[in-house]
Amino acid sequence: MSSLADRLRQINEHRESEVRILAPSHSDYLLGGAHRCWIKECAMKIALAYINCRNEIIKLYENPSIALTLTQHLSIPKPPQWNGVRPSEIAETYGHPHLANKDWRHFENTLRWMFAKQGYICKAKMTNDYEGIAFYAVKMMTAAHIGLPKISVNEETYSPPYANCIPPYKEFCSNLDESMADTKAAEDRMKLAAAPFALHPILAMSM
């Protein structure tokens, strides 16, 4: 039992560190604009939808006499706007390089953060050269009992309908920019745009 308690404590410490380190912040809008905020919003909504779907599936198999561990593997295709190329206005204004993994990394980090916030441990893996993601999430106690299985991206996947979780891109970005128009964040973005790109991360930390 002490071994299980030790594993659970270590897992919880890891979960708490993800909640602290991966949390969305002021710099998301400052450095990535509404585009990055949209990506993180998608990740948060998908994580919550996954938890709800997982719980519903578990209810179908509930039996007080057995302990059921249900691990799902999901492959989430990216909406067209993700495809590894950032919108031209983002690149022109902030000089962000067109890295295929940039949007994927922000999505994956936020996905893990939201799961950790809800008491889950998430494991994810890139698919199709950063154009997709396979992941699963389990409760801490489950992870302490069975560990974290490897993800096989080639196996048949179960994909609940996530279409309703994805907010319309242009509408989301337009509404966010409008709501931020007279805020300090918008003012800081203008100041940042006037500075050399190499200095952006350093300046952003002081804003």
Describe the structure.
With 207 residues, this protein is mainly alpha-helical. It has one domain (2-161). The protein has 8 helices and 3 strands, in the order H-H-E-H-H-E-E-H-H-H-H. It has a 3-stranded antiparallel sheet. The protein is globular. The termini are far apart.
What does this entry show, briefly?
The chain has 207 residues and is mainly alpha-helical. It is 55% helix and 10% strand.
Which runs of at least 5 residues are low in confidence (pLDDT < 50)? 64-69
Distance between the termini: 48 Å
Q: What is the overall number of helices?
A: 8
Percent strand equals 5-15%
Query: Which word captures the global form?
Result: globular
- By helix and strand content, what is the structural category? mainly alpha
**Major β-sheet annotation:** 3 strands, antiparallel
| Radius of gyration, taken over Cα atoms and rounded to an integer in Å | 19 Å
Q: Kindly state the mean pLDDT as a whole number? A: 77
Question: Residue share in helices?
Answer: 40-55%
Strand order within the widest sheet? 1-3-2
Q: Please indicate the count of domains.
A: 1
Query: How many strand segments?
Result: 3
Order of helices and strands: HHEHHEEHHHH
Keywords:
about 210 residues; three-stranded antiparallel beta sheet; 8 helices
Write the layout of secondary structure elements.
Layout: H1 2-21, H2 26-60, E1 74-77, H3 88-94, H4 102-117, E2 120-127, E3 132-139, H5 140-146, H6 169-179, H7 184-193, H8 200-206
Antiparallel strand pairs: 1-3, 2-3
Helix pairs in contact: 1-4, 1-5, 2-4, 2-6, 2-7
